[in-house]
Structures are given as C-alpha cells and as structure tokens.
Write a structure and sequence with these properties.
Distance between the termini of chain B: 61 Å
Number of helices of chain A: 2
Number of strands of chain B: 10
Strand content of chain B: 5-15%
Oligomer: heterodimer
Helix content of chain B: 55-70%
Helix content of chain A: 10-25%
Order of helices and strands of chain A: EEEEHEEEHE
Number of helices of chain B: 27
Structural class of chain A: mainly beta
Radius of gyration of chain B: 28 Å
Distance between the termini of chain A: 16 Å
Strand content of chain A: 35-45%
Number of strands of chain A: 8
Chain lengths: 88, 640
C-alpha cells in the first residue's frame, strides 16, 4: 500500500511480480509491460501482450537467459528483458 | 522506417520484373522453402544503403514457367526494425525500387498460428495476391494438435497450402494456387483488416481461429523438445555438452579437411608446373602458372574447411541446437557487448575470417554485428597455422609436445584477447552500451534432413568462393607482380632475382621500421606477401632465404628451418631468427590484420570503408607495436 501524494491513493496486490520471479513451469498471466518504449513494443509484437498466459520452462546455466513459452513458441529472454514483464 | 516512395518511378518497375516474395517471421521455414522452390539455385544480392542482402532465384522448371522469387528477411516486428526487417517491410509496402512484389507467399508456422498470422495483416493490406504456406505441420502431432488448412482458408479468406519445404511436399500445389490467387479486399477480409495495436490484433486472430475451429488449441509443450532442452540447457551439463560439440566441430574442420586440402594443394601445384612446363619460361606463362593458378589455389585450399564448417553449422541450425548454443553463451557474450549469436561468427573465425564476417549477418542488431566483425580478425584463422607451425618448430626444436601446447595457448589467447578488445571497446564507446533485445526463438528440435542441408551448405560455400575468390586472386596476382618485377634505371624488367623486385625495394624502404622488431628486409618481403594470404609468408620466406629445394629424404620445413638458422643480417654475423625476433613475429601474426581479402569482405558487408580501414590500421599497428615491445623487452631482459 502506498500514497503517491495527498490526493492520490495507489494500492495493488502484492501478488504482482516480475517474470524473473515466476516459478518454473507455472502458467502466469501478463499484467503489463513496463520498460523501454521500443523494446516493450517489440515484445508485445512477439506475443507478450497483457492478459496472455506464459510460462518460464527453462533457465540457462547462469540463470540467464530464461526460456519462456508464449503462444506456442519458445523464446529466450534475457533477465533484463523478462524484468519488464509484470505478472499477476 | 525509411520511406522512399519518390524513388518508385515507373521506369524502374519496368526494368525489374515483378517477383514472388516469400515473407514471414524468422524460423518459419522461408529459406528452406526458397531452397525447395528454386532447387538451391539462388544468389544473394546486396542492397545499397543497407547492409542486407536478399536471396534471389528462379523457380525450378518442373513448376511450370520460370518465375522470379525473392526470399525476404524474416520480420519479428515493425517497431524499431533491424536493417533486415526494414528492408523486408519496405519491399512488402512496395517502397523498394529494386524489388516489386507480384504476389506474396506468407510462410506460417502451423504450431504458432497466432504469432505468425498477426504479421499477415501488413502483407494482406498491400492489394497483391497472397497465398499462405503452412509449414511445420509434422510437428503438430507432438503436441497432439490439429490444424485444418481448409477451415483456416475459410476463416482468413485466403488460400492456405500445407507444405513441407524439407521434403518438397506441397510445393507444386503452392505454385498452382499462386496462379489462381487474387488480392484480398480489405473491406471483407479479416486478414487485411487486422488492427495495428498488438493486443487487439492478437485478440482478433485468436477469435478468428477459435470461431472457425481451425485449431484444437493445446498448451501442452512439445515433449521431444522439452526433454532435449532439459539436458542441453542443464545447469551442470549444458556447458560440457556445448564444449563437446565445439570440440567435434573444430576437430572436423582441422583433421577431416586436411586430406582434401592436401589433394587440392598438390593438384594446383601440379597444374602450375604443367602450365609452366608447356608454355616455357615467358613472363605471361609464369604469371599464369604462379600468379593466377597459385592465387586460385590459395582460394581453393580453404574450400574443404569452409564446406565442412558450413555443413556442420547448417546441421546444428537445422536440428535446432544452434539457438540453444547461442542462448547458453549469451550471458558472457552480452557482458562483452556481443550477442548470443556472435558465437557462430567467432567460431567460424578460427577457420577463416571471411565466412565468419558473412555469418555475422545472423546477428540482429547492427551495433552487435559491427562489434563482432571488429574482433573477428583476432580469431586465429587457419591461414596463420602454417606460420605458427614454422615459427614454433624453430623456437622449440625437437619438442613437438611443447610446440603443440604453445599452439593451443595461442588459440585460447586469441579468444581471450578478442573478448578483451570487445569488452573494452563497448565500455569506451559507452553511449552504445545499451544492449539490444535478445528475445530469440528456440525452434523445436527436429531430425535433420540431408538434402536441404547439403543444398544450403553448397549455396553458402559457393557464396564464399564468389565473395572471397576475386579479392584473394587479385591480391595474389598483385603480390606476384611486385615480387617478380623490378625497376632498374634503364627499364621495367621482369627480374629473375627477387632481390631487385618492387617488393624487395619496399622491404629495403621498410627496413628502419623492421629493425626494431628484429627483422630484416627479407622478412619484410615475407610480411608484405602475406597480405595475399598469411600462409604465403612461409613460401615467400623460403624464396627470400634461398632455402634449397628439399631433397628426397627431407621435407620442405626442414630445409627452411636450416636456412633460417643460417640467416644473418646482411654484412654481419648477427643471426636474424633469434628467440626474441621469432616471438616478435608470433606476436605480429597474432594481432595484425594481414589479409586484404578480409578487409575487402568487411568493406562489402558493412557497406563502408571506415570499419575495414580502422581495423586494418588498428590491428596492424597494434601487432607492430606489441611485436617491437616484446622484442625490445626480451632483449632488455637478456633474451637474444
């Protein structure tokens, strides 16, 4: 729970996390993309749109990149990119 | 996205016939389809202004009248497109003056209909006939899905043809359907009226697919791919497996190629000798025998290595492993400012920098591609091998094991120094540091098919010959001329004596610069001639030192080593080839970009002389500076 200023109240579920915090092999729903403009628009074009369910199915040996299942495809995302994807 | 509608004048359109364009996302099987349509006979064509090439070809005669076909680069997204994507989009929109699309074949992966059909909107809006080629149908059974091409065709209002480009199944039907297809009407076609917003577009595609019952959707993961991925991406096993594959790859490049290289080498020597035996000693005959045929030999001798390299790379790519390899090494490479896919060119660089520069095309972002190309000359290419072999044999006489270890050290160091240069460069020019997007697709694992792989290997290999062949031969011819012609006050003469040649004169001029690195003008001539190809250093050193022709029981290296031991600075009894000076030469060859062919190919691939010139000056300067430093340093330490 947080107050942004005197007139504005902002509350959100603490269940919201970044994709980097998602458990392996679990389907999670994308809540929003939040990152550099062009990169996030590209991610959306690749299939990462809010509301879509995705799943992290593997991680490379250093924990980076992550292999994510989205709309029938497997994409390798760097941790940096995965951290722009917020999940519910 | 660049727009040049004003260039699209009618006269341009008439000069180039309209072509069938293959479009789609990367990994949809476009290029394999191109292969099946043209029988592997296509050529790459460069486009001015962008560092991208398109594949051009003509359809095989068995598919009816011959048609011009163009394979456009795959497009992930039209947002901040890479050079390849920008070119593909420009062609699709009809903004490119070189290619006018007559019709589109939209290649769609049946296992990823949503992602691939979203891109269809852009293509369908162009008012050109369109046929959807449905690939990867064979993979649907793995996830127990079904896709009905008929239902898909009804839902989209466009013809859909299932094809398997790897076997050629459905390709003829695709061509026949193309003849009958017409442009879609944006008013009625759901495909042509897809919204641009990705959320809305994906939702619309999903609704279309669901309503028409095209696909039995399943979230099940392809079990074959998942099982293999669990092993090859494993925390502990991932890297050992990757290393093992690299070792096998290297082993094949060096050992399996050797017999073929020997055959080609002796074949060209025989050809040269036959020509000079039959045409006599005239200058043109000698030029033909040594300059031209020798130059052709210099190109051909690397061909087996390059074919094996391309074959194994295509095999890894086709099976699906290559993308895993790139994902595994992405993290360390990203730290150096490179891309996961940079590992393919870096690896190829150990065979030859030229195919490596060509392979760098697979790297999506321009900055990472240029940085990869920048460090490629450091990778210890196989043309350096004969030079290192000679110098190490001279440095460590009678200790082949130590020489072998030293050679392994040189190879590993070249990788480390390359990493260092990339890491420093990306940090010094820190405004470029922001990394690009990886977001790389890991395709399903599949059993490779030999025919398309062999076709692809040949197409890539022959493109090497076309690209590198001409510059290497030209340089070899020029080097032959400057080492065989000289200028005396009276006339321009073909000199029998290499001592009077232009190269020797150049060597004498360079001598003040060569002395600090412990070399005389004869070594200088060797270094100049090595610009044709580095291994030429060995043969030209043999000529300059008057190493006798090997006798029956001796090999060439032994006589040359003997001549090197006897070599003295002119007028003194000071030996030239000391520990210090030979180490200096090793250092010089390690860094120096002594290969005009690489410079030429980098110029072509980057479409500018700047990067190539900077590389030439930087690496050759660095090599010289470090060679001088190590020779002087060793001498200061008392090592002669």
């Amino acid at each position: 729970m947080q107050f942004e200023n005197e007139n504005r109240f902002h509350i959100e579920s603490d269940r919201k996390r970044r994709l980097t915090q998602a458990p392996l092999d679990a389907w999670v729903r994308i809540e929003r993309l939040d990152g550099p403009m062009d990169d996030c628009r590209r991610l959306a074009d690749l299939g990462f749109t809010p509301g879509e369910e995705i799943s992290v199915i593997h991680t490379a040996p250093f924990g980076d990149p992550l292999v994510v299942r989205v709309r029938g495809a497997q994409l390798a995302l760097r941790k940096r990119e995965a951290s722009w994807i917020w999940i519910e | 996205m660049k727009c040049h509608p004003q260039e699209d004048s009618p006269s341009d359109k008439q000069t180039r016939p309209a072509a069938i364009c293959l479009v789609g996302m990367p990994n949809s099987g476009k290029t394999t389809l191109m292969n099946a349509l043209t029988g592997g006979h296509f050529s790459t064509a460069n486009y001015p202004g962008v560092t991208v090439s398109l594949l051009h070809g003509r359809s095989k005669p068995e598919f009816g009248s011959s048609r011009e076909i163009v394979d456009l680069p795959g497009v992930h997204s039209v947002v901040s497109p890479s050079a390849e994507e920008a070119l593909a989009c420009a062609v699709i929109r009809g903004e490119n003056t070189r290619v006018t699309p007559a019709a589109f074949v939209l290649v769609v992966d049946a296992t990823q209909l949503e992602r691939h059909l979203k891109f269809a909107g852009l293509v369908a809006q162009q008012g050109k006939p369109i046929v959807i080629a449905l690939t990867m149908m064979d993979l649907l059974t793995r996830t127990r899905q079904q896709v009905s091409p008929e239902a898909l065709s009804r839902a989209l209002g466009a013809p859909v043809v299932p094809v398997d480009p790897r076997t050629g199944k459905g390709v003829r039907q695709l061509i026949e359907t193309l003849d009958r297809s017409v442009a879609l009407d944006p008013a009625t076609s759901p495909l042509a009226s897809l919204p641009e917003d990705p959320i809305a577009a994906f939702a619309r595609v999903r609704d279309l697919l669901r309503e028409s019952g095209v696909v039995t959707r399943s979230r099940e993961i392809d079990p074959v791919t998942a099982r293999i991925d669990r092993i090859v991406l494993d925390r502990y096993w991932g890297f050992p497996i990757f290393l093992l594959i690299l070792i096998i790859l290297f082993g094949s490049i060096f050992w399996a190629a050797q017999p073929f290289m020997d055959v080609i080498d002796s074949g060209f020597s025989w050809l040269g000798e036959t020509v000079s035996a039959n045409l006599g000693d005239s200058v043109p005959a000698q030029f033909l025998a040594e300059g031209v045929i020798g130059g052709m030999g210099a190109v051909a001798v690397f061909f087996p290595q390059i074919l094996i390299l391309f074959f194994l790379m295509t095999l890894l790519e086709d099976s699906g492993y290559l993308a895993r390899g790139a994902a595994l090494v992405d993290r360390p490479l990203a730290f150096l400012g490179l891309h996961g896919r940079s590992f393919v060119p870096m690896l190829s660089g150990f065979a030859c920098a030229i195919p490596a520069v060509l392979a760098a095309r697979a790297i999506p972002s321009r900055r990472e591609r240029f940085l990869t190309i920048w460090i490629l000359p450091l990778m210890s290419c196989s043309a350096r091998l004969p030079v290192y072999a000679l110098l190490l044999a001279a440095l460590l006489p009678g200790a082949p094991l130590k020489a072998g270890l030293a050679l392994a050290g040189i190879y590993i160091s070249s990788l480390l120094v390359g990493s260092l240069v990339a890491g420093l460069a990306v940090r010094i020019f820190s405004k470029y540091r922001d990394p690009s997007l990886l977001a790389m697709e890991l395709p399903a694992f599949r059993v490779p098919r030999w025919k398309p792989i062999l076709r692809m290997t040949w197409a890539r290999g022959s493109s090497y010959i076309k690209r590198a062949g001409v510059p290497i031969m030209l340089v070899a011819a020029v080097i032959w001329i400057i080492t065989h012609f000289g200028y005396t006050p009276a006339t321009l003469v073909a000199s029998a004596e290499t001592e009077n040649s232009f190269a020797a004169q150049l060597g004498h001029r360079m001598e003040p610069a060569l002395r600090p690195m412990g070399a005389d003008w004869r070594v200088g001539v060797g270094l100049i001639s090595a610009f044709a190809a580095r291994e030429v250093f060995v043969s030209s050193l043999a000529i300059m030192l008057h190493a006798p022709d090997p006798e029956e029981d001796q090999n060439q290296q032994a006589t040359l080593l003997e001549a090197m031991r006897k070599a003295r600075f002119p007028g003194t009894d000071q030996p030239i080839f000391t520990t210090a000076s030979m180490l200096g030469l090793v250092v010089f060859f390690f860094f120096s970009l002594q290969c005009f062919s690489t410079v030429a190919v980098v110029m072509k691939e980057t479409n500018s002389w700047k990067l190539a010139a900077a590389q030439l000056v930087f690496y050759t300067g660095l090599g010289y500076g470090l060679a001088v430093a190590s020779v002087q340093g060793l001498r200061a330490l008392g090592v002669a």
